[in-house]
Design goal:
The chain has about 250 residues and is α/β, with parallel strands linked by helices. It has 6 helices and 10 strands, in the order ααβαββααββαβββββ. A 7-stranded mixed sheet has the order 3-2-1-4-5-6-7, with helices on both faces. A 3-stranded antiparallel sheet has the order 8-9-10, covered by helices on one side. Residues about 20-25 have low confidence and may be disordered.
Length: about 250
């Protein structure tokens, strides 16, 4: 079809050709600030949620990795995308899959892995995720002195909390997307039950290595302005108003 007035390439270039959509993803920086605050952490295994809800936080992670490619703190990444895109009805406890790993002294490897395994998980519509399955897998690579860091979406909860007793080393939990909302109680309980710690991009919220975990009576623990009581061996928030997790341990 010939359009009047468009007689040459230069004229055509000046005409309207469509729209360009630019997404302005913004997220509180996460992994980088926490590692910058804790330069003594070494031999780190990062267990990272690469489902699409994590995209803003993962863009920030990639920026930090790009700027810190000579940093040797990180030994390995374990990525989880909740099943490589399989339908929700096929997901099974401790057998959902979508867990992958890279180990490299070149942080560009991890940047490529984040993109690759996020794409492999496209199509996942389930809000709950296989967090504990990924942590159990990562634990196999731990050496004496290893640190396990979980980088997880504060607005999604583990579907597999029943596996918590299979974790035998502390987990340092970084809650992504927690600004403006309560910390996810299921993520707090991963830190609490393993004697680990919980962090956000701006603060270290709680270290649980000396916390008392008892079955027979309630103990109140303060995390910021929120109060938690022991419920069995876990914690339950008693004054949270927008806790993303309503399925406590």
């Amino acid at each position: 079809m010939k359009i009047a007035g468009l007689n040459n390439l230069d004229t055509a270039k000046e005409q309207f050709h469509g729209f360009v959509l630019v997404y302005d993803y913004k997220a509180e920086p996460t992994l980088g600030p926490v590692l910058d605050r804790h330069k003594n952490w070494d031999s780190i295994i990062v267990v990272v949620d690469v489902t699409t809800s994590m995209l803003p936080s993962l863009l920030e992670v990639n920026k930090w990795l790009d700027l810190n490619y000579k940093n040797k703190q990180i030994d390995r990444f374990v990525y989880f995308n909740d099943g490589d895109g399989i339908p929700d009805y096929m997901k099974r406890l401790n057998a959902t899959g979508g867990i992958h790993t890279d180990t490299s002294s070149d942080y560009a490897t991890y940047m490529k892995g984040i993109k690759k395994y996020m794409v492999m998980g496209l199509g996942n519509m389930d809000k709950a995720e296989n967090v504990l399955e990924a942590l159990i897998y990562a634990q196999k690579f731990a050496k004496p002195g290893s640190e396990i860091i979980l980088l997880s979406d504060n607005n999604s909860s583990p579907r597999d909390t029943a596996l918590i007793d299979s974790l035998t080393i502390p987990v340092k939990v970084i809650a992504c997307g927690a600004e403006g909302c309560d910390l996810n109680t299921s993520l707090i309980n991963i830190a609490y039950r393993t004697g680990g710690s919980i962090h956000t991009g701006t603060s270290d919220v709680r270290d649980f290595k000396n916390a008392r975990r008892v079955k027979d009576r309630e103990i109140i623990i303060n995390i910021g302005s929120k109060k938690y009581i022991t419920k069995g061996r876990s914690l339950k928030c008693i004054n949270c108003y927008c806790d993303p997790d309503l399925r406590y341990f």
